[in-house]
Design brief:
72% of the residues lie in helices and 2% in strands. It has 16 helices and two strands. The protein has a two-stranded antiparallel ribbon with strand order 1-2.
Length: 313
């Protein structure tokens, strides 16, 4: 008990507060996931027809980043029990004892409200509504419902990570178009093979935590087949921006090449021995999948910028 003068005051620990520093709260935002969200949202914003004042464009990206961070904090609040079991997540702020669950919940809710309201008031309410739905979908539909109840968790839940380019697009146009839907579909279809590759070499982690990931429920062989199927569809959808006319030939060629690579890695996973303990092909595909998605969106950004500045038509 801390004592000041004649009056007693409770310490932070005694009233359920942690001694977290800013770095711990920043970790709650899942900064690596946030960086991908910000990048794809920025691409959607740049590619959208029309224009937006740089200040309001920056506000939109900031709000999307904060909203993504809020989703991460709410996810860590709810999943603190299974995060403590899994080796991949056991050092996160809550299971590590650096932040309390109540602090993470309040932090996530405040950031959610701030990002949604600021985006609506300063940019437009269509983008704001999409951001609010994205936060709800990730925190409630995926984290609280799908993740622990079905091996299709990442298939349906992957929509949350696919919305950012649509939000960036809507920040400029105030609407949703087929072009922005294609950007959504690229990420949506990419998510299952990306995360199932991870799940293949982290089966024991998910099994210990009771999370019904595809390899643990349907088996390795079924997961290998589904990874290949999704990779094929993703590679096809990846070149649609060129065929739909909102990306140029350079993008089309790069997307085709990256897509061939994505399918090649999926074939290596398909051919992998189901009893292979090292799971090297799955690890290689997981790493390449990040390169694939970044490469597509980086080329979309370059293509859009060069077209806008008249470097190529």
């Amino acid at each position: 008990m801390a004592i000041t003068g004649e009056h007693e005051s409770l310490t932070g620990a005694e009233i359920g507060l942690s001694e977290a520093d800013p770095r711990d709260y920043f970790e709650l935002l899942k900064p690596r996931v946030m960086s991908l969200v910000v990048f794809t949202a920025f691409v959607g914003l740049i590619m959208a027809p029309g224009s937006i004042h740089p200040f309001f464009g920056a506000v939109a990206i900031l709000c999307i980043a904060v909203g993504a961070g809020a989703s991460g904090a709410l996810n860590m609040w709810y999943d603190a029990d299974i995060d403590a079991i899994m080796s991949r997540t056991s050092r996160r702020p809550i299971p590590d004892g650096r932040v309390t669950r109540s602090e993470a919940l309040i932090f996530g809710l405040v950031l959610s409200a701030f990002s949604v309201m600021t985006l609506g008031l300063l940019v437009n309410w269509v983008a704001s509504a999409l951001l609010a739905f994205t936060i709800f979908f990730y925190a409630v539909v995926y984290t609280m419902w799908l993740k622990r109840s079905t091996p299709q968790n990442i298939v349906i839940g992957g929509a949350a990570g696919a919305f950012p380019p649509m939000i960036g697009w809507a920040s400029v146009t105030g609407s949703i178009s087929w072009d922005s839907v294609v950007l959504f579909l690229i990420i949506f279809l990419w998510t299952p093979p990306h995360f199932w590759a991870l799940a293949l070499f982290k089966q024991s982690d998910y099994g210990n935590a009771g999370v019904p990931m595809m390899p643990n429920v349907a088996g390795v062989r079924s997961t290998q087949k589904q990874i290949l199927a999704y990779a094929l569809v993703t590679a096809i959808v990846g070149v649609l921006p060129y065929f739909m006319g909102f990306a140029g030939l350079a993008y089309g060629l790069l997307a085709a090449g990256l897509g061939v690579g994505f399918v090649w890695y999926a074939i290596q996973v398909y051919r992998m021995d189901a009893d292979d303990k090292l799971m090297k092909p799955a690890k290689a595909m997981f790493a390449y999948s990040l390169i694939y998605l970044f490469g597509l969106f980086a080329m979309l950004l370059i293509d859009s910028a060069l077209t806008r500045f008249g470097v190529w038509a």
